[in-house]
């Protein structure tokens, strides 16, 4: 995330100042009554300064899982993203409820209450905060942070999100490289967001390749949460909440559609996507809010369209099936308040190294096998 030179700090930013407001026809969407009302968006990022003029009247609940000392640049980061999402003046989904979870970025300090065993930043890590948001019953999760490397915690946090059909929307990164594994969209099931300019072309800084699901404008006008200066910001970090907000609008518009069908709608209505054709720069096509809100997603398959991110992407379809069927080793799960072990391994079931509920031998995969034998 990078700002351009700051502008005046005096006047409140309006819809007329905001490039994405007109680009995504938000005035018409507002006049039709769609604001994201009834939808809860989780923002997992830097803390939010909700006292700025652009966030007055927004429904924001901030949550810090433990003691995190956030740097000024991350206060800015979280505050800018919150404006894009729910600013009453120009936000994508100003009627949505925003739950802001404070993430510890590299260089931030964390207190001892963040530790999970020897993992100093455990409860402020992105994977455990995804679990926290799912515990809280949110509808959409958005995050704009890098996540290099593999962890079991992220594997199972995403398997849970996929199972529960909660879209996880994440930025693709600003390194101008192909198939980066440094960012969350490299993981299966994640809505990976690249950046475009108002002419529809990919931004010169955006990452591209297998992780990309869609693209959106990434140059908002927003207020710093620290200096309080207005300015233009740029990056895939700021394209991501545009997509998350659009998904919230679609959920309000189509309340009977599943989370998977809402994501299918995104994948099938993008500009340049030709109804589901993929390309490495805008994924299944750049966001088209009008098409997204006027196309009934209930006609689409009830499955996550963003599962396959290249060879050996994680979590695998088998991982998701194992989680859904309750046969994952519960000792691998942290901060998951919904999981119940339903397998047949008594050693795992009665281990003192987890606190998941146990319903031994009740996994639906065993019942499927039994029913198959009876036929």
Written account of the structure:
It is a single chain. By secondary structure, the protein is α/β, with parallel strands linked by helices. The protein has two domains: 2-299, Rossmann fold (3-Layer(aba) Sandwich); 332-374, no CATH class. Helices cover 28% and strands 14% of the residues. The chain is built from eleven helices and twelve strands. The strands form three sheets. A seven-stranded parallel beta sheet has the order 3-5-2-7-8-9-10, sandwiched between helices. α5 links the parallel β7 (140-143) and β8. It is globular and about 65 Å long.
Per the CATH scheme, the topology name of the largest domain is Rossmann fold
Query: Order of strands across the widest beta sheet?
Result: 3-5-2-7-8-9-10
For the biggest sheet, the summary is: 7 strands, parallel
CATH class (first level) name of the largest domain: Alpha Beta
Overall mean confidence score, pLDDT: 94
Low-confidence stretches are: 1-8
How much strand content do the residues show? Answer: 5-15%
Radius of gyration: 20 Å
SS summary, helix count: 11
Number of domains: 2
CATH architecture label of the largest domain:
3-Layer(aba) Sandwich
How far is it from the N-terminal to the C-terminal residue, by CA?
58 Å
Global morphology: globular
Query: How many beta-strand elements?
Result: 12
Fourth-level CATH superfamily of the largest domain: Peptidase S8/S53 domain
SSE ordering: EHHEEEHEEHEHEEEEEHHHHHH
Secondary-structure content class = alpha/beta
Q: Report helical residue fraction.
A: 25-40%
Task: Supply database-style keywords.
alpha/beta; Rossmann fold; seven-stranded parallel beta sheet; three-stranded antiparallel beta sheet; 12 strands; 14% strand; disordered N terminus
């Amino acid at each position: 995330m990078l700002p351009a030179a700051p502008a005046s700090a005096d006047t409140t930013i309006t819809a007329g100042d905001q490039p994405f407001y007109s680009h995504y026809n938000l005035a018409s969407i507002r006049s039709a009554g769609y604001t994201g009302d009834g939808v809860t968006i989780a923002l997992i990022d830097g803390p939010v300064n909700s006292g700025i003029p652009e966030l007055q009247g927004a429904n924001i609940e901030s949550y810090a899982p433990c003691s995190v000392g956030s740097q000024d640049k991350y206060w800015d980061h979280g505050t800018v993203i919150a404006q894009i999402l729910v600013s009453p003046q120009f936000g994508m989904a100003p009627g949505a409820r925003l739950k802001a979870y404070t993430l510890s970025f590299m260089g931030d300090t964390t207190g001892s209450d963040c530790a999970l065993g020897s993992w100093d930043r455990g409860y402020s890590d992105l994977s455990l905060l995804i679990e926290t948001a799912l515990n809280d019953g949110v509808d959409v999760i958005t995050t704009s942070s890098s996540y290099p490397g593999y962890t079991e915690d992220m594997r199972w946090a995403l398997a849970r999100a996929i199972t529960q059909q909660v879209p996880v929307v994440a930025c693709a990164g600003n390194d101008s490289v192909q198939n980066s594994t440094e960012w969350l969209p490299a993981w299966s099931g994640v809505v990976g967001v690249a950046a475009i300019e108002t002419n529809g072309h990919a931004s010169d800084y955006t990452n591209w390749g297998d992780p990309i699901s869609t693209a959106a404008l990434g140059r908002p006008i927003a207020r710093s949460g620290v200096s309080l200066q207005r300015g233009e910001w740029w990056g895939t970090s700021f394209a991501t909440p545009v997509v998350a907000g659009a998904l919230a609008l679609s959920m309000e518009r189509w309340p009977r559609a599943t989370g998977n069908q809402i994501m299918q709608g995104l994948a099938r209505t993008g500009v340049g996507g030709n109804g589901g054709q993929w390309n490495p720069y805008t994924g299944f096509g750049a966001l088209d809010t009008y098409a997204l809100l006027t196309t009934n997603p209930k006609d689409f398959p009830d499955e996550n369209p963003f599962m396959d991110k290249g060879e050996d992407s994680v979590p695998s379809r088998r991982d998701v099936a194992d989680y859904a069927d309750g046969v994952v080793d519960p000792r691998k799960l942290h901060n998951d308040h919904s999981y119940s072990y339903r397998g047949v391994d008594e050693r795992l079931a009665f281990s003192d190294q987890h606190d998941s509920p146990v319903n031994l031998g009740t996994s639906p995969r065993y019942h499927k096998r039994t029913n198959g034998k009876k036929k």
